[in-house]
Amino acid sequence: MKIDSEGSLRHLHFKGGGGSLYLGDVGDALLRGFGAHEPPIIVEEPRFDQQCWKMIIKDSELTIILESKAYWGFGLFSSCFLNKIHMIGPLNRRASTIFDLVSVLGRNPWEAVRKSRFSKNTGVQITDEKAAWEELIEQGKLDLENKIQSMEMNAKSLKKKLTVLSEDAPKNWDLNSAHDEIENALSECEVANDALHDRTSAGVERALARAENHLIKANPETEVVGQYDGGDLLDQMIEVDPDEIDLSEKILLHDELPDDFVHNQDSLEDDDVPFVDLSSEEE
């Protein structure tokens, strides 16, 4: 990656700017799983060794301080570097970030090449490091499971109320179609469970978004199209015959206005325009 003149991290092909750094697989996976964020700020730029640096990644609710440094081999090998990740933000967001990081990375980030040297330089035993990672991963998984279960409960609850809701449903709403939409929503929940099993949080979120869309279509209280008695609103507007529209009573004629409100260019003489001298104020 490259560093621009303002100290922000940029793509390798960014034109202009200063030095460069090696991000590494952990840093790359973290940026990919973080979501929309401001350009990372390099607070400690690399010098001779381009793998030694410190940066800050943040959005509106989460801040991550990511530091890269060598822990054995004098920085001569790519496997001799460790990343220190310091996260500041809500637990659920920290958990989801770590869950995504491990998913994208494709390996266990707490497994060091030189365990003894890793523990000596970090002051943390490998077993404790593993436990800290797995705790956040499990929390991230639990949050996604709760989202899936909540969506399933909403779908089943709506299914029970459909008969009652159908009494006041719009004309274009169909009970059988609503049942189909609910079944589609439940199917998407199964897809979300499969994505969770594969540790793909993005897949879970996409499946839940599709499920929510199905429930919106199934619920006559939230079906927007139903408010227009069926059909597309634009089509209904096109079908209106212009000759059938009477605007005579909706036009406010000029001579109906009070005399005090009738103004035009002819009624304003040059002498009537007030002149205010602001030269003293500008001085």
What number is the mean pLDDT?
A: 81
Identify the quaternary structure here.
single chain
Tell me the distance between the termini: 53 Å
Low-confidence stretches: 225-234
The helix/strand class is: alpha+beta
Helicity, as a percent range: 40-55%
Give me the strand/helix succession.
Answer: EEHEEEEHHHHHHH
Total of domains? 2
What is the CA-atom radius of gyration, in angstroms?
A: 31 Å
Largest sheet: 4 strands, antiparallel
Task: Describe the global form.
Answer: elongated
> How many beta-strand elements?
6
Give the DSSP E fraction (strand runs of 2 or more residues). 5-15%
The number of helices is: 8
Order of adjacent strands in the largest pleated sheet:
3-4-5-6
Quick recap:
The chain has helices at residues 24-34, 91-105, 115-122, 126-165, 175-197, 201-218, 233-239, 279-282; strands spanning 2-3, 9-10, 41-44, 53-58, 63-70, 81-88.
Structural commentary:
This protein has 283 residues and is an alpha+beta fold. It has 2 domains: 2-124, no CATH class; 141-233. Helices cover 45% and strands 11% of the residues. It is built from 8 helices and 6 strands, in the order ββαββββααααααα. The strands form 2 sheets. It has a 4-stranded antiparallel beta sheet with strand order 3-4-5-6, with helices on one face. It has a two-stranded antiparallel ribbon with strand order 1-2. β3 (41-44) and β4 form a beta hairpin. α1 (24-34) packs across α2, α4 (126-165) runs antiparallel to α5 (175-197) and α5 (175-197) packs antiparallel against α6 (201-218). It is elongated.
